[in-house]
Amino acid sequence: MTSPVVTARGLTRVYGEGETAVHALRGVDLDIASGRLTAVMGPSGSGKSTLMHVLAGLDKPDGGSVSIAGVEVTGLDDKGLTELRREHIGFVFQFFNLLPMLTARENIVLPSEIAGEEVDAAWLDELVEKIGLTDRLGHRPSELSGGQQQRVAVARSLASRPTVLFADEPTGNLDSTTSAEILELLRSAVDGFGQTTVMVTHDPGAARFADRVVHLEDGQIASDETQVPS
Amino acid sequence: MRRVALKGLWLRRGRALLTTLAVVLGVAMVCGTFILTDTIDKAFDAIFTTGNAKTSAVISARNVVEESSSGKPTIPAALLEKVRAAPDVAEASGIISAAGFGTDQIRLVGRDGKTIGNPNAPKLAIGADWSVERFNPFTIAEGRFPRTDGELAIDRTTADKQDLEPGDELGVSGQGGKRTFTVTGIARYGEVNSLGGATIGLFDIPTAQKLLAKEGRFDTISVAVDPGVTDQQLKESLREVVGRDAAVRTGDEQAAEESKEIEEATSFIRYFLLAFGFIALGVGAFVIYNTLTITIAQRVRELATLRALGASGRQVRRSVLIEGLALGVIASVVGLVLGYFLAKGLSAAFVALGIDLPKTDQVVKPRTIIASLAIGIVVTAVASIAPARRATRISPIAAMQEGAKLPAKLGARRPVAGLIVLAVAAVLLGLGAFAGLKVTTALILLGAGCLVLFAAVGMLAHRAVTPLARALGAPAQRVGGAAGHLARENASRNPARTASTAGALMIGLALVTLVATLGEGLRSSNRKALENQVSADTVITAKNGFDTIPAAAGQAAAQIPGVQVYPVRHDRANAFGDGVSVDGLAPGIDRVVRLSTSGGPAFPGDGEAVVEREYATEHKLTVGSTLELTTPSAKKLDVTVSAFQERTSVQKIDPLFGKVVLSQETFEANFPRSGDQYVFVAGAVPATTIDRALKGFPDVEARSRAAWVTKRVDGIKTLLNLLYVLLALSVVVSLFGMVNTLVLTVFERTREIGMLRAVGMSRRQVRRMVRQESIITALIGAALGLPLGLLLARLLSSALADEGITFAVPGSALIVFTVVAIVAGVIAAIAPARRAARLDVLKALQYE
After folding, report:
1. Residues 386-405 of B with CB under 8 A from A
2. How confident is the model over B669-706, as pLDDT tens digits?
3. Between A93, A100, A156, which is nearest B399 by CB?
């Protein structure tokens, strides 16, 4: 097996103070293996979203540390975090978060544009073919269905070949057929390109596509199982 | 990233356009002002160049006293023969020309007995040897030039307006009262029919000299040069002939000199109008700031997504700034175009007022374009700095959260910054009002203080919004029920937003309140001062109240039995290298006028002068010291200071007499062609009877004391009205801001409005809810602006309180302004309310 690309040790995160304090994470240790699809599951309020925010460097833990590709995330300032997101992290969001003024193609190349990097044309063609939207690249998000929008979002997250891709409830806003298409897409990126992926979901159906399922309850890991994805 | 910013702007173009309107108006005002004044300058330039085209040199007396009411000094007619005999001179001709001000004008009197032409336009009169074609810029369209006494030619416009043809009779009123002349011809000046609405009368030389009391004199001598000699060479040789008393200019120099005088007048108009353009731009900056903040608040997720995708804080800030810059560029370009048409509209307005500007193409100088664009872009860019900085504080987590909010403004909880700005405003205003600085410095400080004060109130106002909304919204709730209640709550939901929306309106309302309060204070204290000073039964003045009138008018009134007249002669003189106003008081005038003095008798004897106290102090004059005056005819005159005039501050603003007061005898012995500022009349004869005796003087009017005081005090009303019109511009700009905020607010609350409709709110109630929120916001603007205006007025007047400026609250004006605010609120709400009421309930609920 491969070495972990994301390492978390002793993560704690508390919101609020005193009696109303909410302990979202109560000491979480986690290693995310390279080239695998890891699903983080748990009921509402279990801390799964907080865990993802902390792992991706979006939120700072109150205790513990996170490193991605050998970089200590918890010590980075805003500039360092921006660099980290550009080089190592991709996101897929529940509400797609495509920019409404840009076409599908422009949305896909946006992260490279932001980072001031050249887009690898061959890689882009491969991605576009993979998401199957070759003929809709000139359309705006408002002209695409939910499933199509999320496929564009997946292509966008893959375009920069991130070290790790975080997917936050990627099927939370889609019907079951479309959900399956998106999950297959994510799965094939893991199998085809070895894309390390962390997916937060509360849908057991979605978790079946993962190599490993981590269950969170009350801010702690309740179970951690490796499985053969279906 | 630039593409993201610009494409985003394009997607929201409708709203963006609404936002830019706030800046468009200000830029249009700036640009229109430049174009208008440049065009006027150029038109007159062209006229003066035409007038001096075939003239090699012009000889005129040296101008001794600026703005003398008796006109410029003249040169002796005998000089003409000397000039003709000079070397290189081909031809020379003497000219009499009345500039059209004070006693230096000839009025044409229509069949109705009234002066022809707009009271604000000059009345030109020219006497020349019309047979000398070379110097004659006029051409005869009909009839012929005048040849003898009793004949004149007039301009085409006047002829058309009065329906006059050669052979008709026309009244002409000069220094000696009205006489009847015969029109011999209709003339045109070069290619134009009219010169800026001025009436033009052309006479032969002796007639013009008599009408203007310039016998044996010329105003100018025009000279043409022999072939082969340059104008410059001619100028040199003429200099030797005319000596030191007269000035020689080449034709070109003369044209430039004449243009310069017009340019001084237009530059005053320019700065005056520009000031209001800048006020509108300041309000526009408020509106832009507010709108950008709201649009950023609505795009929190979008901006957070950019951050999550790797955009740095700096990139986000830049994208907002680019958006602001793009808005600024668009607004400025649109404003520029609008300004072009505004200038056209303004000249049309001038024509409607009877000031017919000479026709030329509008002048758009590169300076106009650069200044208009620069100021519009800079204002917008500066207004977008704060929203851009706030946008950088959006966390990328917001990309994954529903209903994420824009982080609070830096230091919003701590009012320190606002209080510091407030303190700066207090210092500036305090210095301006109390430090006794020079008027211009004080005004600059007060103006700057005003701006800073507005910014401070803008920064602190959000704290006052909630209580104000509660108080002002109470009637809305009573009238509007649930809709009113919600309107009241909505208004205080985002206090910072409501505060800056109301803040834009506040500025306009504060300024009109300031103007109204000062105007009211001036009016009431001026009335008291005038009533206190003047006890005459009747006062004779020019119809417009400020021109001097021929001395013959007072003499005509004196013929009425039972009437005693006390004229006040007036002109300007030079002393200490500068101009000063001088009056000559008739003997016995103390029966009808009080002059408050110190250090000596109230009225001057012969060879004595009563000098205004501050002027005396400035020039170290004491009782008994000698004051040397130079009259407009360059005559030197020594007078002995006998007492000081003591003035209250309202008298400083609207003084009855000049700074130097002489006896009538001393005045008449030294000043040429003097006119009267007032003729005070004692005697129980009705003003109408006296007025009838003045028929020969169409611009002269006799009024009863009460009527005269009212007329004089109301002079300020015209100024007030002009200021109101110009300040209305900034109120309109703030109106755009209100519309903008409401539209964005409705958009933001789509889901909520859908819910309200779903639980049974009618379209009507939705409309009412939006409308009442708008009215509450406008009233908050009034609640902040009116007291602020009163405070500023109070500051100004209390600095001058010792000297008689009273602080009078203009009650009815304040009510009018409050009504204006309510109407503004209703108007601003029309479109947004309709939009809210039309929302499809189902779609609104699903809206994400």
Report:
1. 395-397, 399-400, 402
2. 888 777 899 999 998 888 888 988 888 888 888 999 99
3. A93
